Amino acid sequence: MPLSRTGVLASAVILALYAFTGAVVLTAPYESPYNVIARLLALWGFLALSIATLLTPFLRQITEVFGRPFLSVHHTFAAVGLLLPTLHPVTLAIGSLNPAVFIPVFSPWERFWALAGRPALYLLYIAFAAVILRKYIPKYWRWVHGLMYVVLLFAVVHGNLIGTDFENPVIWTIFNALFILVVAAFILKQWQKVQKKRASARRAGA
User: Fold this and answer.
1) How many folded domains does the chain comprise?
2) Structural domain range at position 10
3) How far apart (Å, rounded) are the C-alpha atoms in residues 154 and 184?
């Protein structure tokens, strides 16, 4: 099924977001090539994870818009959102020759949030594992997979506190707006579940 007009527009917006963030990173002063690559990986990874999460309340609409099954579109962005954030600390570790970038810091509280990207990476893998193990934990996998929202929270706080590119007001606006949209998508998804349960109860009582 070909892309709809809305799908073409949505694809153009997504590509524009990637192109713009790439341009911001590549045109800003930098200390080393590793710094540039790490920043690109972080921003593009956040974009992919945000988009994958934003799609979840719109299963039928995504299929109509992109001409592909929802899971195909969702998993494409999710895969990119898993790979790029993984490579972000790898690049930093190589550039600084310091593997400590993988070790979460829990104290003091301010430093925990400044470096919240570190625990976010481990939560990302736990959330991803829930999908693979869903048949073994059918009652709980959705709750575990829901850690993705915590991952995005940690990531956006981390970016706001120490992210170099968040000093750009447009980047700051885009990425904080994306997180707000993710929260809105979460609320919408929960509302849909409530409506579905009410409809099922009405049918059962009819």
Assistant:
1) 1
2) 5-205
3) 17
pTM: 0.92
Closest-CA residue to 152 (of 130, 183, 111, 125): 183
The residue written with tokens 């009819």 in the block is 206
CA count, 13 A, side-chain hemisphere, 177? 7
- Long-range contact pairs involving 109-116 (C-beta distance under 8 Å, separation at least 24): 113/157, 113/158, 113/161, 114/158, 114/161, 114/162, 115/158, 115/162, 116/154, 116/155, 116/157, 116/158, 116/161
pLDDT, tens digit (0-9, with 9 covering 90-100), for 140-185: 999 999 999 999 999 999 999 999 999 999 999 999 999 999 999 9
Q: Decide if 78 contacts 67 (C-beta within 8 A).
A: no
